[in-house]
Amino acid sequence: MISLSKRTLFSVAALCAAISISGIASAQSPKIEEGFDYRILPVVQPVEAKGKVEVIEFFWYGCPHCYDFEPELSAWVKRQPKDVVFRRVPVAFRDDFMPHSQLFYALEAMGKGDAMNEKVMYAMHKENKRLMTENEIADWVASQGIDRNTFLATYRSFAVISKARAARQMAETYRIDGVPTIVMQGRYVTSPSIAGTKAKAIAVMDYLEQKIRKDKFK
């Protein structure tokens, strides 16, 4: 009788421990739900690279939330394997924001995008530089050691202006109504505002990345 009671006690204790561990795991891995933490685009958009996980950040240089999210997003990008393709698309919600899109693509065309994007955002959000006109932008770029005339030629080029316009159209096609917004595989949409926090948005991106692989990059 005593032996049976001990066995029963041990079983109950083991069950409680298992429930406790499960509860801790659940707390550490918050539930991720469609409609709450991410949504699906009404019309799925084509991806550029087959057999890859495509991740697009729609952003605007002047957006304080984009600047605030940048450290977490950059850290996430750096730890991704080779089958994850990440790119940024500048969004101009108004005509007077188009110079920022041209700035982004001009720097990219000159091979200086990765090195300069964070500096552009720092200048705007920490040094109070608006960079709203061509002259303001060119002066600032020149202050960073880039030849002013070469930059302006690139900034004014048909290729850069076309890319800036295409980016605006792309944002409309993807129904982007705020930034920063992350779109994965042309299908899944999340952001710190959708997920609730920056940390949760990163967790959602990890979840969607695994889901995309599991679904064979669909």
Describe what this molecule looks like in 3D:
This protein is of the alpha+beta class and 218 residues long. It has two domains: 30 residues; 176 residues, Glutaredoxin (3-Layer(aba) Sandwich). Helix content is 56%, strand content 11%. It contains nine helices and five strands. Strands 1-5-4-2-3 form a five-stranded mixed beta sheet, sandwiched between helices. Helix 3 runs antiparallel to helix 4, helix 3 packs across helix 6 and helix 5 crosses helix 6. 30% of the residues are buried. The N terminus is likely disordered.
Q: Strands of the largest sheet, in order across it?
A: 1-5-4-2-3
CATH-assigned fold name of the largest domain? Glutaredoxin
CATH H level, superfamily name of the largest domain: Glutaredoxin
Structural class: alpha+beta
Largest sheet: 5 strands, mixed
Q: Between the first and last Cα atoms, what is the distance in angstroms? A: 59 Å
Please supply descriptive tags for the structure shown above:
alpha+beta, 5 strands, five-stranded mixed sheet, 218 residues
Entry summary:
The chain has 2 domains: 1-30; 39-214, 3-Layer(aba) Sandwich (Glutaredoxin). It has helices at 2-28, 64-78, 98-109, 113-126, 134-143, 148-155, 158-173, 192-195, 198-214, and strands spanning 39-40, 53-59, 84-90, 181-184, 188-190. With 218 residues, the chain is α+β, with helices and mostly antiparallel strands.
What is the fold's blueprint, element by element?
Elements: H1 2-28, E1 39-40, E2 53-59, H2 64-78, E3 84-90, H3 98-109, H4 113-126, H5 134-143, H6 148-155, H7 158-173, E4 181-184, E5 188-190, H8 192-195, H9 198-214
Parallel strand pairs: 2-3
Antiparallel strand pairs: 1-5, 2-4, 4-5
Helix pairs in contact: 3-4, 3-6, 3-7, 5-6
